[in-house]
Give the backbone structure.
Amino acid sequence: MERWEKQKRGSQIRWSRAVVGLVLIAALFMVLLMSCSDDEADTGEGAAPSAVSGDAAAIAEARGLTPDDITAALKTYTPSGVHDDYVLFGSGGHSGQVYVVGLPSMRILKKIAVFTPEPWQGWGYGAASSMEVLEEGFVNGNPLTWGDTHHPALSETAGDYDGEWLFINDKANARLAVIDLRDFETKQIVKNPIALNDHGGAFVTPDTEWVIEGGQYAAPLGWEYSSIDNYAEDYRGMVTIWKFDREAGRLVPEESFAMELPPYWQDLCDVGKLVSAGWLFCNSFNTEMATGGVESGNPPFETGASQRDMDYMHIINLDKAIEVAQAGNTFDVKGFPVISLDTAIEEGLLYFAPEPKSPHGVSIAPGGEYMVVSGKLDPHTTVYSFDKIQAAIAAGEWETDVYGVPILDFDDVVEAQVEVGLGPLHTQFDDKGYAYTSLFLEPAVARWSLGGPYADLNEEPDWSLVSKIPVHYNVGHISTAEGDTVSPDGKYLVSLNKWAIDRFLNVGPLLPQNFQLIDINEPGDNLQLLYDMPIPDGEPHYAQIIKADKLSPWEVYPEVGWDPHTQSPSPYATLIGEERIERDGNNVEIFMTAVRSHFTPEHVELQKGDHVTWHITNVEQTYDATHGFTIPLYNINLSIEPGETTTFEFDATEDGVFSYYCTEFCSALHLEMTGYMFIEP
Ligand code: RUQ
Ligand code: CUA
């Protein structure tokens, strides 16, 4: 209560400070504008007096901007040509893609095609490299052309984002994707061999040797049929540990394995770091093992699965599990090695710690010493101590669950509980010793002190709520700059809000989601909302924010004739003068080049019934000189970036005259960048 009063007073003080600030800012603007017009006079270039009224205060007044609005604008406005400091990789939700957003401007830089075809990037419209990756994600030949992306994970070196790789899961179909940050393209999709949906992925170990994919809704492993009446015996949870080969840039199914877990609904995981490196933590819910069936008079899942006061945080000895799997102490599900629940218990790989009511997520503090869990139906966030967990395991005294998994005593392993507010979900960290927890029901983001002591707080170890800032609305995840590393930057927090309601112009009953940028740079009460960014896709779950200078993507492909899928020279690379059409019976192979502003050849003669393999090399090495390529009727659309060689195949089933053309406005003579494909009946 006191704290809230203090905060109210604080905001009054801030307001009067802000009014003074406004006057200063307006004065500053005037000075800047005057010096600006001097420059223009000096260079003799035409000034644009109408665009700058010369009176920032008048603009602010005319637009009804408050002093806070003006500081927010000054903190986020990024002039033309100036680059952002941070890059957010955000899940694209049901779009199955990944958003790339610059901070603090909140400008969208790219949407990376992952699980869903995307025509501009030529993803899934003929180009072999994209078709092969999408097909890797099909199940038993069933084409899956979308994903429910939840949790992006940047690759790490020694617990810090290294800017090389990005992983993301598809909850709907239990798949993981690998994106290469040299060209921001998806290189691999793996289907989880034993589960049909997931949630607790992607999370990486501190050196990205392993990528974690935890399950969600229990089912028989390998999704074999079994009646729901056999839930306790036949249904199982799981976590899958994927080996990542950084050199090859691929997950390696042959070196990966899973662990069988009780049929509780494993939710979200996080990987230990520093002191807790080598351990894995996942929260769970529905330890009641509710099986639903509301239509038959059973309690619905939402009540059945929230009866108990405690669910179980899963504590997994990852290093030891890897040893057990590598020793072959596994059984097979669909040819994939799985450590059985019994083995996990015998070998001491799995422990539980009680966690309050229907938790959602577990977040490891930067030092790895604390695991933070929030129960959606409990106003507290619960902090577990890794040391205490280790001590409790060493003491070896516990109850077990019905499957025999050791349950550590709650009081033995908890370090603190902090009352943060209603509907706490996910927690992030900064560089000042604060933690931030999203409060779905309020909705707000709570800042609280993570044990302390810290310079701006009491000298005593401090576990308490410091401040709160309302968000709009229904916040799920939050993400801080470098927030999942061993050394978060603080500075910015993005609140990923599921409802937008009144924040934007009405666009009909389906609203955008809202990413809100919050300045968390100042200690204490000083949290400032800076920017609302509508996201035209539902439902982006999580995001990670990396320092922009850690990314060094290529400007063009390293050599003319590059295959982006293998990241090596393509055997089909075609240079100027090497263009040709080869025919072998009904098989026709075309080697084409693209350059501003023509394709060679410009005439392609085919017979109905031919099988056509067509390679196009964009021989340009100029930044941004991308060419597109489309053939009508055949659903072909490619994006061929500078240096790239692309291959596509089709059967000439339709005869006629088809004009192909470049779909990127690449030059003054772009409209002339065309050609004819003749298919004789
Ligand atoms: S989820 S809004 Cu991470 Cu999929 Cu919590
Ligand atoms: Cu190439 Cu337009």
